[in-house]
Specification:
Serine Threonine Protein Phosphatase 5, Tetratricopeptide repeat, 2 domains, two-stranded antiparallel sheet
């Protein structure tokens, strides 16, 4: 049975079954991708498989039920075998089998679903053995516009600045992204090649210092601005400024080339959602969790980075993920799923962290506006 059912009168009688099945598979995977975001943040959320009618209410499921729905739909997609392992030239950004496999592994590992570890490992090894992906030797080059959709990229969210019409008056219009300006360098000089940004979300000094000096991910992913360029004036620094910035996505001059609206809103940096490095580290971790030797996968990532670390247990792999994916939105979820969050995110473990994490903070409160609209919604525990 297909995960999504079209009505018998689907108004596309001339579409061949292969194309139709690919569209169904892509839509199903994207649905799981968006539910995955909501599931991790809010847990117990409304879920539906068929279009709703007014007043557009549906049953609220538990977090475990949402997870089950998503992974079962993904498994149905895998049975369809309607997706290519890698997108063809000109189709970058469409859902692929590799992207779906990565989403599946992410959800299975976050749920700590031991019964599906072997299956998830098999999917990671299928990506590896396909020969379609490979690590990029130049780590810093991954994050340039020229590095988009390189051999390491499994899936990116596309942004474009050329002809981009996004503006403050219409911020939801498709086009570029404002994120590089948000984390941009306040007071950056023209000679530096970086834009004068707003300085939110600087990198902590201790994060920069966790790398060995010759680990290419340190200066390939983080910019120690004051050590290279004229120091940022005090009146330009934000109160939490460190002088270290996320080089992966920081705003570069002419990074919004060709935009036709508000320049700050239209930088062209794609978001690298899934990289082949994560495939390898997933395979390494899932191997450990299933009693197998996956150290070769871990070593491949370390060799590219010139990292001399030697541990191969899960804790060592999580530490490697921290270095590999700094600033890519992976770390917090790794801490939660491995049970490390309560210790690592305890009060006082960071100069700005005055309150610690506990299990009651796993899910955010459901928005009050949604609770007011739907009398059948139950607030998350603790709120």
């Amino acid at each position: 049975m297909l995960p999504l059912q079209l009505p018998s009168d689907d108004h596309i009688p001339n579409m061949d079954e292969a194309r139709k099945n690919r569209y169904i598979a892509e839509a199903t995977v994207l649905k799981a991708f968006y539910y995955n975001i909501m599931w991790k943040y809010w847990g117990n959320i409304p879920y539906y498989d068929k279009n709703l009618t007014a007043p557009y209410f549906t049953k609220q499921l538990t977090a475990d039920e949402v997870y089950a729905k998503c992974v079962e739909n993904l498994e149905a997609v895998f049975e369809m075998d309607a997706l290519p392992m890698k997108a063809a030239a000109g189709e970058e950004g469409r859902v692929t089998k590799a992207m779906a496999y990565m989403l599946y592994a992410e959800m299975v590992m976050y749920q700590n679903d031991e019964e599906r570890y072997d299956e998830a490992l098999g999917y990671m090894e299928e990506i590896i053995n396909s020969g379609e992906y490979a690590l990029v030797a130049d780590f810093a080059g991954i994050w340039l516009e020229s590095g988009e959709w390189g051999s390491e990229s499994i899936w990116e969210i596309n942004y474009t600045s050329e002809g981009a019409p996004r503006s403050w008056g219409s911020p939801l219009t498709a086009g570029g992204t404002v994120y590089p300006m948000l984390i941009g360098i306040p007071g950056a000089t023209e000679a530096s090649g970086f834009s004068d940004g707003w300085g939110f979300g600087p990198v902590a000094k201790h994060a920069y210092e966790m790398y060995a000096e010759d680990d290419i991910r340190r200066d390939g992913g983080i910019l120690n601005y004051n050590a290279i360029y004229d120091p940022i004036p005090e009146d330009k620094m934000r109160w939490q400024g460190t002088g270290y910035y996320l080089l992966k996505y920081v705003a570069r001059r002419n990074g919004n080339h060709g935009q036709i609206a508000d320049g700050d809103m239209n930088h062209c940096n794609n978001v690298r959602v899934y990289r082949y490095a994560e495939t390898l580290l997933n395979a390494a971790e899932l191997s450990v969790l299933t009693g197998k030797d996956g150290s070769r996968y871990l070593q491949e990532v370390r060799d590219r980075a010139n990292c001399k670390d030697s541990g191969t247990d899960q804790e060592a792999i999580i530490a490697e993920r921290r270095k590999e994916f700094l600033g890519e939105g992976k770390r917090y979820w790794d801490l939660v799923r491995t049970g490390m969050a309560e210790t690592v995110l305890a009060a006082g473990t960071h100069e700005w962290r005055t309150e610690g994490w506990h299990s009651g903070k796993k899910y955010w409160p459901l928005p009050q506006a949604e609770l007011d609209k739907d009398p059948n919604l139950t607030p998350n525990v603790g709120y």
